[in-house]
Amino acid sequence: MRRFAIVILAAAACAAAAAQELRATTEDGRKVLLSPDGKWRFNSNHLAPTVSPDSASPYQPAVKKFSFSFNTNEWTIAPKRDGGEAGKRVFQHKSLPVFGMVISDEMPANNNAMRELIVSNARQTGAETLVLLDETQRVNGKEVGVIRFSANLKGVEFLFSTNYFADDDGNSQVACYTSQSLFSKYQRDCEIFLSGLTIK
């Protein structure tokens, strides 16, 4: 009888452990969470990226409720191109092969529509896309969408990480991207860049 009780307790402990997320660390030191359903995602909770206030420069997107700060010691805003999208600005890291975008306009939307638009725009370029991360985070009390996907265009593989938000006042998305093979190396730099989005 005692042996039977031990087996039952062990089975209950295994079931409880299986119902919770497991934490793991990759070979290059990144933290991941393993879900009971077999899916995994990067654990961004252990990171607290912030833009250093002494080197931060605010960029005001088209919608006044959004603002974006970035480190001017590390990033530069590319000059506007003639005929380019009015609400889009491109950023480039000064020393790393990492790029960023801030896109904003007054068109009302919701987060679900924004997610679909982001993925659809990537596919319209002809790129094969694969969503790797799809979750929400809270920024200034608002639910912000977070999506990370790979995009293979003519044999060149990129990895995009994007934070996005939309409501009746307009929408905004902040993206950071680099080569898929380099993303794990520069993930921290991307997360710091993405953390510059503020929603009033």
Describe the structure.
22% of the residues lie in helices and 43% in strands. The chain folds into two domains: 2-42, no CATH class; 49-199, Protein Transport Mog1p, Chain A, CATH 3.40.1000.10. A seven-stranded antiparallel beta sheet has the order 6-7-8-12-11-10-9, with helices on both faces. The radius of gyration is 20 Å and the shape is globular. It has 200 residues and is an alpha+beta fold. It has helices spanning 2-18, 111-124, 183-194, and strands spanning 22-25, 31-34, 40-42, 56-59, 66-71, 75-77, 88-93, 99-105, 128-139, 142-153, 156-167, 170-179, 197-199. A hairpin with a 2-residue loop joins strand 9 and strand 10.
Cα(first) to Cα(last) distance is 62 Å
CATH class of the largest domain: Alpha Beta
Strand order of the largest sheet: 6-7-8-12-11-10-9
Report Rg: 20 Å
Which key phrases capture this entry?
single chain, 200 residues, alpha+beta, Protein Transport Mog1p, Chain A, 7-stranded antiparallel β-sheet, 3-stranded antiparallel β-sheet, 43% strand, globular, disordered N terminus
Write the topology of this structure.
Elements: H1 2-18, E1 22-25, E2 31-34, E3 40-42, E4 56-59, E5 66-71, E6 75-77, E7 88-93, E8 99-105, H2 111-124, E9 128-139, E10 142-153, E11 156-167, E12 170-179, H3 183-194, E13 197-199
Antiparallel strand pairs: 1-2, 2-3, 4-5, 5-13, 6-7, 7-8, 8-12, 9-10, 10-11, 11-12
